[in-house]
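My current task is to audit a protein record that another person submitted. Alongside the sequence sits a line of tokens, each denoting a local backbone shape. Please read both lines and tell me whether the tokens look consistent with the sequence. Do not assume that whoever made the record got everything right. Thanks in advance; the entry in question is below.
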Amino acid sequence: MKRFSVPVLIAVAAVAMVASGCHKKVAAAKPPATPAPAVATNTSPAPASTPRSTPPQQRAESAAPAPRYPDAKTRARIDELLARIEDAYFDYDKHTLRPDAIKALQADSTELRDIIVQYPDYKLTIEGHCDERGSEEYNRALGDARAQSAKDYLVGVGISSAQLSVISYGKDKPVCEEHNEACWQKNRRIHIVASAK
């Protein structure tokens, strides 16, 4: 048997390693073809809930921001609802909502909420009123507390607090000017109006 010297064996081993290393690089340079994504090969029809591609004009329209203030037709509907919501009445020297006051507010407040929640720039004002008895200062504070009670109720049904403001007229804007309990009861109320834009 023929013997090789140690340097020759090292040289042969080095050539073998280089050759095997080159072989791996060639294999790595040509990776197997990756399969196409499943979405691209899907030939079944798209489900009904999958949005279809929209034409550029429709995309531009849908990208427009939602209006922040209602149009004339919607404002007319809101005015109808406000006219139907009866004034909420209060007991003498009280600002808590009575059951009949809650019923008055409840009647159309849900539909009102469903409309105005879409228009964050649309605002309502809740006016607080009192009867003629008591000082001007006291009645202003009581009217404010009555308006705030109604506001709290409306916020509770989902109308944004930012869309509701309160004002107290105290005894300055009576709806009845006789000096008896029946008339005074009509003046102890809150009234809801659309705020000026």
Q: What stands out?
A: Residues 72-194 form a domain with the 60s Ribosomal Protein L30; Chain: A; fold (CATH 3.30.1330.60). Confidence is low (pLDDT under 50) at residues 22-29, 39-45.
